[in-house]
């Protein structure tokens, strides 16, 4: 008996996106399988934000001459955006800013709002007992249960980010899409937050991490895709792609990559200093 291969979590084929006359994604192709924790890494202007918006249906690719779809998610080319958000949990600064208009929402309210793909709970939203149970489970998984009754306006950046993770997890999505998830966190909060992400990855949720910080790429991420000018620059196993040579080529100046216990760091190197290759 032949067991069919699972549909790719994400499949992009020759996708191009033009904004204000500039091709921000240029015939981009990539495929990510379910369970394949992946980091999409690149400098500012490399196309990371455009790729996120392509995945979340905020950008649409140019039509292909073949008529074939350029983007499919979980095997489908067409999605109702609200259904997609229940399958693909999204955590980004844009999502966090959406709650600024109603700062009295508690952590639990924010998590429950994820079931309705909204920024808060409206009068017509019917919260079921099943949703409440899933929300509590998501708070536990995100190590945020202690924040359930705290208004989001009173939370630190790190606490709010945990609540957003719980919100994304509430509807039990198949994967999480994380956009620069540790932005604004201090060193201690970043460490705790990444430990939470490691636990979520270990629990079976596929992680798609979009970043330009090597420090965010935790050990469970086995694949790194480097973007440059809207194209795939390098793609492969983390230890093969995240190297001093590759980042130097990507940024166009000397870079040094270090790896300690599966945790990476990278920095640009002043001319004349020795580069130790990771």
Features:
alpha/beta; 278 residues; 11 strands; 24% strand; globular; three-stranded antiparallel beta sheet
Q: Helix and strand layout, with pairings?
A:
Elements: E1 10-19, E2 22-32, E3 38-41, H1 48-55, E4 71-73, H2 81-87, E5 88-91, H3 93-97, H4 107-113, H5 129-141, H6 157-169, E6 175-179, H7 187-202, E7 206-211, E8 223-228, E9 231-237, H8 238-241, H9 244-251, E10 255-260, E11 263-268
Parallel strand pairs: 3-7, 3-8, 5-6, 6-7
Antiparallel strand pairs: 1-2, 1-4, 8-9, 10-11
Describe this structure in words.
The model has no long low-confidence stretch (mean pLDDT 87). The strands form three sheets. The protein has a six-stranded mixed β-sheet, sandwiched between helices. A three-stranded antiparallel β-sheet has the order 2-1-4, covered by helices on one side. Helix 5 crosses helix 6. The chain is of the alpha/beta class. The longest helix has 16 residues. The radius of gyration is 19 Å and the shape is globular. Helix content is 29%, strand content 24%. The chain contains nine helices and eleven strands.
């Amino acid at each position: 008996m032949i067991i069919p291969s699972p549909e790719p979590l994400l499949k992009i084929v020759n996708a191009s996106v033009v904004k204000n006359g500039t091709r921000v994604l240029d015939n981009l192709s990539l495929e990510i399988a379910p369970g394949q924790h992946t980091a999409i890494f690149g400098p500012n202007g490399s196309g990371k934000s455009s790729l996120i918006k392509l995945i979340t249906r905020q950008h649409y690719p140019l039509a292909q001459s073949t008529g074939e779809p350029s983007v499919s998610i979980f095997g489908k080319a067409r999605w109702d955006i609200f259904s997609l958000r229940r399958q693909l949990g999204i955590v980004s600064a844009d999502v966090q800013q959406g709650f600024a208009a109603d700062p009295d929402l508690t952590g639990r309210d924010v998590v429950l709002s994820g079931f309705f793909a909204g920024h808060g709970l409206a009068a017509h939203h019917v919260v079921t007992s099943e949703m409440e149970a899933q929300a509590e489970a998501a708070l536990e998984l995100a190590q945020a249960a202690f924040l359930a009754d705290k208004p989001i306006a009173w939370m630190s950046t790190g606490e709010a980010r945990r609540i957003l993770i719980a919100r994304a997890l509430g509807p039990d999505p198949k994967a999480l899409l994380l956009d620069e998830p540790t932005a604004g966190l201090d060193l201690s909060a970043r460490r705790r937050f990444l430990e939470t992400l490691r636990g979520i990855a270990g629990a079976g949720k596929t992680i798609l991490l979009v970043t330009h910080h090597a420090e965010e790429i935790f050990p469970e991420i086995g694949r790194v895709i480097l973007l440059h000018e809207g194209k795939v620059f390098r793609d492969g196993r983390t230890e093969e792609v995240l190297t001093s040579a590759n980042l130097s080529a990507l940024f166009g100046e000397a870079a040094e990559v270090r790896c300690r216990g599966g945790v990476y760091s990278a920095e640009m190197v002043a001319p004349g200093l020795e580069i130790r290759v990771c």
